[in-house]
Write a structure and sequence with these properties.
The protein contains two helices and nine strands. The termini are far apart. By secondary structure, the chain is α+β, with helices and mostly antiparallel strands.
Length: 286
């Protein structure tokens, strides 16, 4: 094969690859240049119209999810403490069973396995620092605990018609002045037995969804109001409010490697959660 024929064949091969490659990309809904063609008209709020949520923030109060309805003294792990969501009879009975286990120190919290997302709405009920990152097209809730991340899209997109269920679901929203308003759907809830809202054993079903309003109510406080609906578990909408306080300037968030110092093994015989002392021996074994 002479040099001229070889060059001609190489040129034809490259041309065919370019044609087929471009056609394939456009067949997947992509524009020339590799950009995905949106199925909606993007609408974003300019940077100069967005509020300032910079810095680190921490949830105010303990990790009882709905402190407004709490009865009993102490935190989520203390016997006698419970909340009063508008459960129907079936789901109140489920909660009662969890409370009984909690009172005996037998209620597992799956996130102690490390690497399991806490999911929504527990995403707003974690004890360690947060960062709230705002961009015109989306906002990110970043929690040191876990670590966990939640994305809220504000670029004009809609929820998917065939949204599958995940821990944190799918959140889309918009800005109403300085308030971020978003809806969350596609939550798997307690369907697979690996999502709770707090350590009292609160749960929701895979039919739950929510509307959240998030805003800065003063220079040092961000308020999150969640209106949760669940046709399977609740008799009416459940409104829960959480607040977050601004942390000192320069506060950092770090890696959260819970397996690195996991001091809560489970007794294989009793199912009881154990606490280990400095010597590695259980402090609360019978």
């Amino acid at each position: 094969m002479n040099r001229r024929v070889r060059a001609t064949l190489i040129g034809l091969s490259v041309s065919l690859l370019l044609v087929f490659g471009l056609g394939y990309g456009q067949g997947l809904g992509q524009q020339a240049g590799g950009q995905q063609a949106p199925s909606y008209t993007p609408t974003v709020t300019p940077y100069d119209k967005l509020p300032d949520w910079s810095g680190a923030w921490a949830m105010m109060g303990g990790t009882v999810f709905d402190r407004a309805t709490q009865t009993g003294q102490g935190g989520a792990v203390n016997a006698g403490v419970r909340e009063h969501p508008p459960y129907n009879a079936e789901w109140e009975a489920i909660y009662q069973k969890s409370l009984e286990k909690r009172d005996k120190n037998l209620l597992p919290d799956v996130i102690t396995n490390c690497g399991v997302p806490v999911g929504f709405p527990r995403m707003f009920n974690l004890p360690d620092p947060y960062e709230f990152v705002i961009r015109p097209e989306e906002s990110w809730i970043l929690a040191e605990n876990g670590p966990n991340v939640m994305r809220v899209y504000t670029d004009g997109r809609k929820h998917l018609d065939d949204q599958w269920e995940t821990y944190t679901g799918d959140s889309v929203g918009h800005w109403e002045g300085d308030t971020l308003v978003f809806t969350t759907i596609g939550l798997k809830g307690s369907r697979d037995g690996d999502v709770i809202l707090d350590r009292t054993g609160l749960v929701l079903s895979d039919k739950s969804h929510a509307t959240t309003r998030m805003r800065k109510i003063n220079d040092n406080t961000i308020e999150v109001v969640m209106t949760i609906e669940d046709a399977k578990a609740l008799t009416k909408a459940w409104v829960v409010t959480k607040q977050f306080r601004k942390q000192p300037l320069g506060t950092r968030l770090y890696d959260y490697g819970c397996a690195e110092n996991n001091r809560n093994p489970v007794d294989e015989k009793t199912g009881k959660t154990l606490l280990l002392g400095p010597d590695g021996k259980p402090l609360n074994i019978d």
